Amino acid sequence: MSETELNNRHKERMAKKKALIDASIASATKQKGLLIVLTGNGKGKSSSAFGMVARALGHGMKVGVAQFIKARTDTGEEAFFSRQPQVDWQVLGDGFTWDTQDRNQDIATAERGWRVAQQMLTDASYHVVVLDELTYLLNYQYLDSDVVLNNLINRPPMQHVIVTGRAASEALCALADTVSEIQDIKHAYRDGIQAQLGIDL
Ligand code: ATP
Ligand code: MG
Fold first, then answer.
1. Which of 1, 75, 86, 188 has the fewest Cβ atoms within 10 angstroms?
2. What does the domain layout of the chain look like in residue ranges?
3. Of ligand 1's atoms, which has the minimum distance to the CA of residue 38?
């Protein structure tokens, strides 16, 4: 086939493709606050959520971030985002459950943290709310799943919520509008490489 024929074919195919994409975009007309779940064993859940935080801030939106589980306040994301006037950044954990080794303490911490999240989920001035590592609090039954799901259902209708954490429950995924599962193909940690500044924290 000549170069001209190839170019013409390509042009024709792209025109068809463009028509299909334009029609599909035109038919997506609804607006609503989304519930997004980022789960799976691979790296990239929280950092994806923080990427959306950056997007929202670029549009002048107000963002609430509730970080469950983690106690550390020395992450790059916190240092950067908590400086932004439109961000309410709350570190609500006191370590991983295998660090605390105390179920009652974990439950008390989870409940205290959830009350902070509840305030965000009842305040429409927060355009985006990130509930980072929430799935663990549900999977260990530190929080009542029905209460959490009801709070999510009853949030302001235009508020976007992003939940991260491994092993998101079926009920949470069923409620969500968008669910992504990040697969663990390989991770540098298994080669003995320490968590790296700017990449892992
Ligand atoms: P990130 O914050 O980098 O997007 P994540 O939210 O997907 O990661 P978490 O389970 O919250 O993953 O773990 C956060 C930390 O653990 C990061 O330092 C990350 O690099 C590391 N990590 C994530 N997935 C894995 C994995 N499969 N094996 C080893 N370490 C991991
Ligand atoms: Mg994470």
1. 1
2. 1-30, 32-191
3. 7
